[in-house]
Amino acid sequence: MFKKLTLLAMAIGALAAFALPAVASANWTVEGEELTENHTLEVTGTIGFMGPAGAGSPGVSCIVTASIELTAGTNVAHVKTFAPEVKENGTPNCTGTGVLANCHVESVTAIGLPWTLSAAGDTLTIQGAGVTNKYKAGTCPITESVVADTGEKDSVTAKADNQEAVSEFTMGGTLGGGALAINGNLKVIGGDAGKFGF
Q1: Between 119 and which of 21, 97, 188, 198 could a Cys-Cys bridge form, CB atoms 3.0 to 4.6 Å apart?
Q2: How many angstroms from the chain centroid is the CA of residue 10?
Q3: Contact assessment for residue 162 and residue 194, using Cβ atoms and an 8 Å cutoff
Q4: From residue 154, how far is each of 101, 130, 174 by CA, in Å?
């Protein structure tokens, strides 16, 4: 009797194993296989930092480049570099909106690098992000703004266009204690588009 129960339990266990759906790995992958060595993705696109919605909402939008180091065997990555594209005149490729529309951005400096990214589903959560913007005196009602992850009410995300083969991330969330909305798109460049996933 004991042998029959043991065999029955084993058969039920085997059937249950086949019936359960496979859970996708959240670790970084390259062309469908788990990443075995760290790899750096280069991304570029437009990121906007906008104040509360409404007429005259202040904000700054910049074309940026960043490097993201994927950590092998994990679902974690780190933004190692983040900087605006530079125009021929040596200034950042940024534009203001609302009351900042006439401001000339002189510099955009990332603070708190490296920023940590962790994957869940098709979205990366970014922790510790921040930038300092400096504006040319006389063109703007302010000379400097600091936009940073305060940890309170802040959540910056990067949603992948295809979790298994990322070509682009759609940015969203808030910084500055929830005061500034983040939006934009970053495209994977340098031949890595569509190769890496999580």
Answers
A1: 198
A2: 45
A3: yes
A4: 25, 11, 5
- Residue 127 to residue 125: CA distance in whole angstroms: 7
pLDDT digits (tens, 9 = 90+) for 105-150: 999 999 999 999 999 899 999 999 999 999 998 889 899 988 888 8
Q: Extract the runs of DSSP E, i.e. beta strands, from the chain.
A: 29-30, 33-34, 39-50, 59-70, 76-84, 94-97, 105-110, 115-120, 123-127, 130-135, 144-148, 155-160, 168-175, 180-189, 196-197
pTM for the model stands at 0.82
End-to-end CA distance of the chain: 48
Beta bridge partners, 79, equal 68, 115
> For the domain bounded by 27-197, which CATH number is listed?
2.40.160
